[in-house]
Amino acid sequence: MKKAPTILITGAGGFTGQHACMNFIKKGWRTVAAVRTKQHFSLNCCSVECDLTNFEAVRQMIQSVDPQYILHLAGVNSVPQSWDTPLTTMQNNVLGTLNLLEATREHAPKCNILIVGSGLEKTSQPKEPPLHPYGISKTLQRMLSESWHVLFGQHVVIAKPSNLIGPGPSNGVVSLFAKRIANEEQKNKSVELKVNNLRSQREFLDARDAVKAYELLLLKGQPGLTYEIGSGHSVSIQEIINIFQQMTSVKIKVIDQGIKENGVAKMDTANMEKIGWTPKIAFSDSLKDILHYHRSLH
Amino acid sequence: MKKAPTILITGAGGFTGQHACMNFIKKGWRTVAAVRTKQHFSLNCCSVECDLTNFEAVRQMIQSVDPQYILHLAGVNSVPQSWDTPLTTMQNNVLGTLNLLEATREHAPKCNILIVGSGLEKTSQPKEPPLHPYGISKTLQRMLSESWHVLFGQHVVIAKPSNLIGPGPSNGVVSLFAKRIANEEQKNKSVELKVNNLRSQREFLDARDAVKAYELLLLKGQPGLTYEIGSGHSVSIQEIINIFQQMTSVKIKVIDQGIKENGVAKMDTANMEKIGWTPKIAFSDSLKDILHYHRSLH
């Protein structure tokens, strides 16, 4: 019998990290969850505490885990937070990735690494100035990852997902809506949702579909390449609210602040389709599962 | 009488750093030299020890020095060293710059900062892969610096000098030749110089001319802009040897290894000329001063 491969997942305590752990545990892989603190991590797999900004800590982790695969999800992934703490954002997203690449080069040089970037980083127009510290942190993370492949031949693939949604502890707008609705259902009232702009279009993808894409990229991704991952279609905030309204008896009222938002480039999923990936989960099913998740917390 | 401005020079113990200190001391500015260790620093100005990769140390330095100007020269600036220690190279060149920008933003937000990049970083073709860890470290340093100007409005100017030469402790090829020649003059013998390629063309600029450019950029540089600094003409290794041969009675023999070298893009000094800078020191005068420096060490 072939030995199960070992995968190290960084940022395993986060929203996507937990979905990733569940996916690889289910597949029977030896799944090691790297978390900042084990305190709130409850999934049934091996976990290690590691501050990725500390090279010596990362080195020891890679040496002891000896992974064949690394899924690097850790980092600051909030635009507002990146404005509040740009230093921490850069340290986590850039230095953390550098430490991981270097420790792996030293102790697990044959390891397949997937670096998860962000659709909020615009690769199509690299000359355009960044919109926020988060954006530049993800640009530098990607360039660093590509360079380590070119310079040292490391097996590094880059994923660029759009907005991920799904059941679990997400801070995204869809999850926040569902949380508010589920809260109000306890009191049988109406709920008032304040939105930046009802007509804002965004592309959403279920995190469980994204994790399937990550799995495929770890196995079949071409080193040095960036793979955009998305559902292929955008929805407006208005449409999200319409779908939620059909799922609840709570009356949803909307306060539209009419704030102009930066248009987000649509993902080009051609590279993903080439390796056989397409999203499976319908948008309305994602919303149903998200609402169900928040109801289950009561 | 107007109070003399305060300038903080990082990497002040290095080859260019020492020339920079001498320049600003001579101008009567309050010159503070930031060095890794004071042990070998002998110039007659205020000096502070600081590990730039440690944010808290940088924060304390900026707070206590309270500079109006920062000339940021510190960092790993050797291509071979960057291959040996890519982690240290990135930490020094990228994280060190980040710490400096952040500490300045916090404690000296009106400070004019000049970040000294490198001609070995190719901005004209940003899509091309890097040739060495040093190259990518300088690319990320530049992008970070540009971003901090765009995102936070910091007064950050970027300089991109070609190969700097001049009297002093340089590890460049010109200085190494002069050192070998000066050594042999003690013994009145011939000297054998091993070169990668006699026909290699490079652009050299005297560090004293570069420092004048930095002074001008601190005073008149446009924030967010990158200024290429060079002499405007290239010379071959053969020409350098010819000039040195005329200055010494030691017979110079050359072993040409015929190694093909990457052509270095010529600097575009148009932006520098616009603010009134042109190099003043003739190439042969630089060589004379370099040889004189090495003779004086005996």
UniProtKB/TrEMBL annotation, chains A, B:
Coiled coil spans: 181-208
Domain of life: Bacteria
Membrane-spanning ranges: none
Pfam short name (any one): Epimerase
Swiss-Prot/TrEMBL keywords: Coiled coil
Record's protein name: GDP-4-dehydro-6-deoxy-D-mannose reductase
Family: Belongs to the NAD(P)-dependent epimerase/dehydratase family.
All residue ranges annotated as the NAD-dependent epimerase/dehydratase domain in the record: 7-230
